[in-house]
Amino acid sequence: MANSExxxxxxxxxxxxxxxxxxxxxxxxxLVEVAILDGARSLETRDIELAEEVRKNxxxxxxxxxxxxxxxxxxxxxxxPVATDLRMILSVLKIxxxxxxxxxxxxxxxxxxxxxxEMPRMNGSEAGLRRMAKEVQGMLNDALDAFVQRDASLAxxxxxxxxxxxxxxxxxxxxxxxFMMEDPRNITPCMHLHFIAKNVExxxxxxxxxxxxxxxxxxxxxxxxxxxxxxxxxxxxxxxLS
Amino acid sequence: MEDMxxxxxxxxxxxxxxxxxxxxxVYYADNHAIKDVDVDIQxxxxxxxxxxxxxxKSTFLRCINRMNDTIDVARxxxxxxxxxxxxxDRKVDPVQxxxxxxxxxxxxxxxxKSIYDNVAYGPKIHGLAKNKADLDDIVEKALRRxxxxxxxxxxxxxxxxxxxxxxxxxxxxxxxxxxEPEVLLMDEPCSALDPIATAQVEELIDELRxxxxxxxxxxxxxxxxRVSQKTAFFHLGYLVEYDDTDTIFNRPQDNRTESxxxxxxx
Lengths: 242, 266
Description:
A: mainly alpha, B: alpha/beta, Rossmann fold, 10 strands
């Protein structure tokens, strides 16, 4: 299939449309990656100005989402894409929505930073969150590389890495539960931190969605087997912690 | 409605084979136009033949009702079976065959006769009508199936050539189905029509699928995707890929198919 994927369209304007969409997705992905890292850094260093910047930048991400949707719709209307071109447009639409959502979570992290900055620190949990966010950002970076290079095996690899994020989340979940049981005054900050952790875990899920779209783009089929998961917090009980 | 469409197109893969071609070769003098074509065309299914100009799709279509017999230098080898019977067998009368395998051409070509006579001609020469009333019935039925009855019922004596292009084409389709064919071959039936007439003919093709096996040659990828359940891609005389239309347009297996349908320099 390699030939036809790289082959040029007879109508070269079609190629330019597709290139433009790709460039915008990459730009958006870049902004989202920065938002994840900056959000987590602002949380750890209690940098309210940086947090504010993350919130402001989310507007740019949203604007890009809209622009990409519009160009994709126009391309469908004008070019009636089929085969790889059709899968490209369809996956762009889904990747676009997933990226926007990840951006939202990063913004939410920044919002909570301004609240958390007024509260006592929770014994290094912020660093754990930052490591988790760093992992997700790395996954996103690779997922977008896989998209541009149409590399299904890289996408598959990134998809399996979500397991690490799930495990990091489980560890943080236990940590917060312990802090809250130790001292009820920890409940408010720990609840905020837990929401952040859950949101970063969800970011990982959105990145795996992007990977699945890459696999669909390349092979024409969504991956069949369930990806490895280890998000057990929903089943956690107190006794498990002892 | 959409679900029903998905269901019927999924079911279409289980239909019986109507036409079975094996190892078909066509030569125009020294020119080897069709090479090693094997294909099973299903009953009650619309099959689209696509491919660049000169790829052999029209040539192959014309083999199915022996239209190539009319070209002196054309020579057909291999087997083409209609309901299991070899249509190139010496016992087969091409005229009878063409009553069973109707054809509609690119340009609407009504006879310079009345609308009524255009449709009545086939049934008359094949002796399908016992009397005038019977013939009237056949003509009305064919015009109704051709989705043109309401537009012409008050002027059946008017010349067929006076109709609009889209109406003429539907008249030709009515004429083709008046002899109760089992297979309907269409060679780019919409290429001379405007979008509205095209939509009407496409709607008609979908209706015809209930009773006939329809084979359509088209240069419009979108039309092939819209009207057919099976698609065959021809290239340089070879049948490159033949599969469910959904598969051909979503995830074709062959690079040449992919390049052609997505308009790439292959």
